[in-house]
Every structure is written in C-alpha cells, then in structure tokens.
TrEMBL record, chain A:
Gene Ontology MF: a single term: ATP binding
Superkingdom assignment: Bacteria
Coiled coil: none
Similarity field: Belongs to the CbbQ/NirQ/NorQ/GpvN family.
Origin species: Planotetraspora thailandica
Ranges for domain AAA+ ATPase: 34-193
Protein name: AAA+ ATPase domain-containing protein
SMART domains in alphabetical order: AAA
Automatic annotation (TrEMBL), chain B:
The protein, known as: VWA domain-containing protein
Database matches in InterPro entries: UCP010256 (IPR011195), Uncharacterised_CoxE (IPR008912)
Pfam families for the chain: VWA_CoxE
Organism: Planotetraspora thailandica
Domain of life (superkingdom): Bacteria
Length: 282, 456
C-alpha cells in the first residue's frame, strides 16, 4: 500500500510542498490502492510532472522517468540487445549463437527497469501525447498486467508493482484503450486561494499580501481570452521576479513592466494591457 | 449494501444515457474504488467516481450535475432532517437577506465551496424558489430566488466596501472576484433547485432535461454567449490538436523514396548489414484555401468560429484567403493576420468590411460578384470552402457561376450549419447548391474537426 487514505496523501504531499486538492488527493490515493496507472492531463505548467516527483519524494520511492517524443521506439523505451557485445561474443567463440540472447546482453531501458525494480518505484511517463500512436500499444501490456514480453527471453513480470503516472498536454486524444486502463485526473488552473498558497509554499520570503494580489491578478488574466493563459509555473516565476526586484506591492506600473514574465505572445500582452487599463509599454 | 449497489448501477446507467461512455471495465473500477474509500466523505466519493469514469474534461460538467442528483448533499421533505438554521432566515426581510448575501459574497469560496454560502443558497431556495408552474401544481425555479435577491445589483455596494478608490487594476480584480462569487451562488441555487425537483418527481426525469451536452457537441446555431466565449477559448487548443493529428497522418507513409544516409546509419548496430530501411518522409500536401463565408446574423456564430479555426490552422495550408458576404462580398484576410486579436478581428469584420447593402442574404448576387472581382483567387491548387445555410431569400441562385467556380478549383466544399432535416425548407436551396458543390452538415465542433481532417 502506498497511502492509507486521501487525507494521508494530502498530508504527505504537503510535507514536500505539493498542495493537493480533493481531486488530486483522491486519485493519487486510488492509484495506489487499486494498483492502476494515473493519467494526468491538463495545460502546460500546472504541475503534472511535479505531482509524480512529489509522490516519489513523499514515499521515498525511486523515480524512473520516460520522456516521450516523436520517434520514441521500443529500443529506447523498453529494452535493447547490446549488438556490439553480441558481435564480439560471436567473433570470439563460433559456437556462441545460442547464448547471445541472455540477460548479459540485455540493455535495460526505463520501462523494463521500472518493472524489474525490487524497491518501491514511481514510473513517470512524461508527455505521452508527444509519442507516436504505436507507443501506446507498447504501453498497454505494461499498464494492465505490469509485465513485458521479450520474444527471446519470455515474459518478465513485475517484482513489485511500480506506481505509474502518465502525463499529457492533450495535444492529441490518447486512445480509448489507454484511457480505459488508467485513472484519470484533469489538472486545471487552481482557484486564486489555492494558487496563493502554492506561491507561498514555492517562493518563501514573499509577503502574503503580494502573493494574494498576484494570484488574483493571474486569475483575472485567465478570464481574458488569451492565446496562452498563464500557468502556475509562470505565476511562480512572476513571484520570484517581484522578489528579485524587491517590490512589496503589485501596482499597475509593476504589472505593466513585468507582464512579459507571464504573457509570452505580443497580442496577449496588448490585449491584457488594454483590458486591465495598464499603460502601453514603450 | 445492496442500496449502494443499486444507486451505483443507476448512476452509471444515467451517465451512459447522457452520452458519457462508461465501459464495463471502468464500471468495475469505480465499484472497486468504492470499497477502499470513506463513503461518508462526499467529495472523496465524487472524485473517486470522476477518476474512474470520466476520462474527458468536456464530460466533467455533466458528470458533476449527475453526481449532485444521485448523491444529494442533503435531503429535505418528510424523511430528511432539516439542516439547523443559523439566524432567522425564514422570517428576515429581503433587505436584511441581501445584506447577509453581500457579506457572503465578500468571502473566499474555497475549493469545495463555502459551506455558509451553500447553506444560505439552500435556505433561500426553500423560501423563494417555490412557484406555481401549471394549474394546481407547483415547482421549483431558480429565477424566482435570483429575482428576489438580485445578487448582480450588489456589485456596486461590494466594490465600495472592498476598495478605497475606484478604477484601474484593483477594481478589475475586485470585480472578477465578485462575479466569480455571484456565479458560485447562482450555481448553488441551481443545484439545490435541481435537487428539490429530483426529490419530488424522480431523478431520471430531471436528469434528462437539465444536463447540457459537452462543448464539442453544442450546436453552432444555438450556442449561447457564454458557450461562444468557451468555444473561442477552445480554438487554439483545438487547432493544435488538429495540426498534430494532421502531421502524424502525413508522416505515417510506409512507402516513399529511400533515405540512403539514414539507412546506412541504422545498419551500424548490425555490423553494416542494412536490416532495416529508412524512407524519406513524404512531402506534405498543403492545399491553398479560399473561404467564402456567410456573415449574416443567422449564421454568424458558425462562420466566426470556422474562420478562426481555419486561420489558427494556417500552418496546415500554404495560403488562406477569406471573403465574407451578406449581399455583397469583401476580402477579410488581413483582419485575421497572424498574431491579430481574435475579438478585434471579429468586431473589425463587422465594422469595416463592405459586405452588406440591404442586409438580406443573396447568394446568387454574391457568387456573381465574387467571380467577377476575385475570380482569379480560385485556381487549380485551391480548395474552395463555402460556409453558409444556403438561404437566399428567394433570389436567383446563380448556379452556373458557382459551377464555373467549382470547376476552376481543385476541390469545393460547402459546410451547412443547419441540421440535414431542415435543408430545402422555406428559402433554402441546399439541394440545388449541393448538386454543384458537395454539401456537408456541420453543426458542432466535432463535425468541423472531422471535416478539416479530411480536407488536409
């Protein structure tokens, strides 16, 4: 068992500075209790990857990360045969044809490593939507049965079920088969109250009043129709910026000068300046 | 325990009936989750169901409505216990109640909702929400509650209390907070009204009538203002998602020219024996797009959204030119330049473009004018896309001109936001135009996305 109750999840995650709401606490708890992978989806920068890291840190488990990208294949996700070593063995010993497919020549990649790990492990499969559709098929066996089939060796089952977290930015719909096997958690933008607490936890030394103003301002920005709404990560950057500048109050001038930290499209900045009545930047 | 099992099964069945896909495996997962959580914690129960059953954010609002109906927070009536009342809410006068509401709206509604606000909303529904509906019958309505208390009119008073001086950024922020709290109060009232109706006339009955379809299923022509804003916010994520899917499809070719360099590189692990070949990616086919869109009021939400999406998808097309019309036609390409603001573009289109003389749609005249003025925009590489309801106010349709235009183009499509059943009724010439240009029904985002995928 990873956690005893959703309340315990909340406590232990907040000990590592991750503030969990009801949705996060319940689904993190269920993922552990039911032994199912947890799929977190949401816009960039709301703490999806951070959640996996926080779970690993809170439980003292090892974190194994598989970063997905276009063109990711079996050889880099699961396992690969060490061709060079195999060639050398064959050249050294002509009768070695049978032994070159054994443990000795197997290169572990993140998924196999997580399955074979003896200690508690958190497996983070990051940005699943960036990988090609075939990779999802590859994941299905691992996610439902926690086992990997290597044709030359047979099926390897998990020594100890890893805690699996998948993240996705929803740039494409993941397949139904994958979603069905996972618990689903949608992480959206937090309420201003929660965002204030997150900022305070992440940026020690920031006065509470500034954090409050900051969270409210960001919430107002998100209400505007922008190309890219500011994420929590950007709010935190903004807080750090203010701290570095030594500002203790968030007035219109300061917002106007530092808007570039949270809004990264010119049209968004123009729009925000107009809607919030800020002075146009020179 | 069997009571819980029945409730679970009924709940899942209701979700399925509302179009939320719940597979048997997910159903079992949800039941398994019920055995490990504390059932007395309502929010935990809600999230446990959400995590196991709801795998798309678009389905979440409908799910929440159902959950509140099936697992109501309180029960009133003969079997329920009336929650203890704080203060004298049953007899206080309206000004006093408004004062109470103002205090609550100043507060911070935390994540699970402010219990005091919820309690107050319930009490107010109990007091004001009961309205005679039909002869001899009474029902619950939220408008009665909101009319009695009119929370919006409290805004000025609240602003005065929160701020020392008005104006600028602080006022914006305060306003945002107040309107969020008011929306929260309205939601609480609506939820309690639904709960009371469900208690009186059964859950199944109300569930069918109150749950809204997910946003990508909303009919373009019936879209509300709030939904339109939500749709516009969806444009960029949707365009990104579509673009990703289109590029993946283009890359998936298994035939093509051999990429010699990468094949040799791939042969190194096998000692120079090229076991696997590598192919050059196919050159993507990028059509030029000419969009001709009806901007009359009857289809404006549809054409705006479609235009925005095509412009957001600019990287998928080598060239996009857009024309808008009511009874004359004008080019609007520059108004949707990259980086241009979405809302500005729409309002500028309404103001600056010369598209309306008499304000009555006239497709025939528009096609004639288009062929005459911009005929050279349509060439052999162009896909011609016409957006409109084909309702031409009984004017001559100019089918021959359209036929000529369609023949010049590589492809020609017509997207009609009206349901198929209404085509050819009244002044619609859908079949007439449909015989010249392939016409497709396009009533919601899902259908539009499917069409764009076919196009590119």
């Amino acid at each position: 068992m990873w956690f005893a109750s959703p309340d315990e999840v909340r406590e232990r995650l907040s000990a590592v500075d991750y503030l969990a709401d009801d949705a996060v606490a319940t689904s993190v708890f269920l993922a552990g209790a039911l032994g199912k992978p947890l799929l977190t989806e949401g816009p960039a920068g709301v703490g999806k990857t951070q959640l996996a890291k926080a779970v690993a840190q809170a439980t003292g488990a090892r974190l194994i990360r598989l970063q997905c990208y276009e063109g990711l294949d079996e050889a880099r996700a699961l396992y690969e045969w060490n061709y060079k070593k195999q060639l050398l063995r064959i050249q050294a010993d002509d009768d070695a044809w049978d032994d070159i497919f054994s443990e000795e020549f197997l290169l572990e990649r993140p998924l196999l490593k997580a399955i074979r790990s003896e200690e508690p492990t958190v497996l983070l499969i990051d940005e699943t939507d960036k990988a090609d559709v075939e990779v999802e098929g590859l994941l299905l066996e691992i996610l439902s049965d926690y086992q990997i089939t290597i044709p030359e060796l047979g099926t390897i089952s998990a020594a100890r079920r890893p805690y699996v977290v998948l993240t996705s930015n929803a740039t494409r719909e993941l397949s139904e088969a994958l979603k069905r096997r996972c618990l689903y958690l949608h992480l959206g933008y937090p309420t201003p109250e929660r965002e204030r607490d997150i900022v305070l936890a992440q940026v020690p030394g920031l006065p509470a009043a500034v954090a409050e103003q900051l969270a409210r301002t960001v919430a107002t920005l998100r209400e505007l129709e922008l190309k890219k709404s500011p994420s929590i990560a950007e709010t935190i950057d903004w807080a750090r910026t203010l701290l570095a500048l030594g500002r203790t109050d968030l007035d219109e001038a300061v917002v106007g000068q530092t808007l570039g930290v949270v809004l990264k499209h010119n049209s968004d900045q123009v729009r925000a300046a107009k809607e919030l009545g800020l002075a146009a930047r020179p | 325990m069997s009571g819980l099992a029945d409730r679970h099964v009924g709940f899942v069945r209701a979700l399925r009936e509302a179009g939320l896909p719940v597979s048997p495996a997910e159903n079992v997962d949800a039941a398994a989750a019920l055995t490990v959580i504390d059932l007395a914690e309502r929010e935990t129960l809600r999230e446990a169901y959400a995590a196991t059953l709801v795998k798309r954010p678009a389905h979440r609002p409908a799910f929440d409505t159902f959950f509140d109906l099936w697992f109501p927070p309180v029960i009133s009536g003969p079997y329920g216990e009336e929650p203890p009342r704080t203060g004298d809410l049953d007899h206080a006068g309206v000004p006093e109640l408004r004062e109470r509401l103002a205090d609550l709206l100043m507060g911070e509604p935390g994540e699970p909702g402010d219990p005091a606000l919820r309690e107050f909303a319930r009490a107010m529904v109990g007091r004001f929400g009961r309205v005679p509906a039909a002869a001899g019958r009474q029902s619950w309505f939220s408008f009665a509650v909101l009319r009695a208390l009119s929370p919006e009119t409290l805004t000025a008073r609240l602003l005065g209390r929160m701020l020392e001086e008005r104006g600028g950024l602080p006022e914006k922020i305060a306003r945002q907070k107040i309107s969020r709290n008011i929306a929260k109060f309205q939601d609480e009232v609506a939820a309690d009204v639904r709960r009371r109706i469900a208690e009186e006339s059964g859950v199944e009955k109300i569930a069918r009538s109150t749950v809204k379809p997910p946003i990508d299923q909303v009919d373009f022509l019936r879209v509300t203002k709030a939904e339109l804003a939500q749709l516009r916010r969806e444009v960029y994520p949707l365009a990104r998602r579509l673009a990703a899917r289109l590029t993946i499809r283009q890359r998936l070719g298994h035939r093509g020219r051999l990429d010699f360099r990468r094949t040799v590189r791939a042969s190194l692990p096998t000692g120079g024996v090229p076991l696997e070949t590598r192919l050059r990616p196919k050159r993507p086919h990028k059509p030029e797009l000419v969009v001709l869109c009806d901007a009359s009021d009857s289809v404006s939400t549809f054409s705006h959204f479609t235009l925005l999406l095509t412009f957001a998808l600019r990287e998928q097309f080598t060239k996009v030119r857009a024309f808008a019309f009511v009874d004359t036609v004008d080019e609007i390409t520059t108004m949707f330049a990259p980086g241009a603001d979405v809302l500005d573009a729409i309002s500028r289109m309404a103001q600056d473009a010369d598209i309306s003389r008499f304000g009555r749609t006239d497709y025939g005249r528009v096609f004639e004018m288009f062929a005459e003025r911009y005929g050279d925009a349509v060439g052999p590489k162009t896909s011609l896309l016409i957006l409109g309801d084909a309702r031409s106010n009984y004017q001559p349709p100019a089918l021959d001109t359209l036929r000529r235009l369609a023949a010049q183009a590589r492809h020609a499509y017509w997207l009609n936001p009206e349901p198929h059943g209404q085509w050819d009724t009244g002044d619609s010439v859908a079949t007439g135009y449909g015989a010249v240009v392939a016409m497709r029904e396009c009533r919601n985002v899902a259908q539009l996305a499917a069409f764009i995928q076919d196009l590119a």
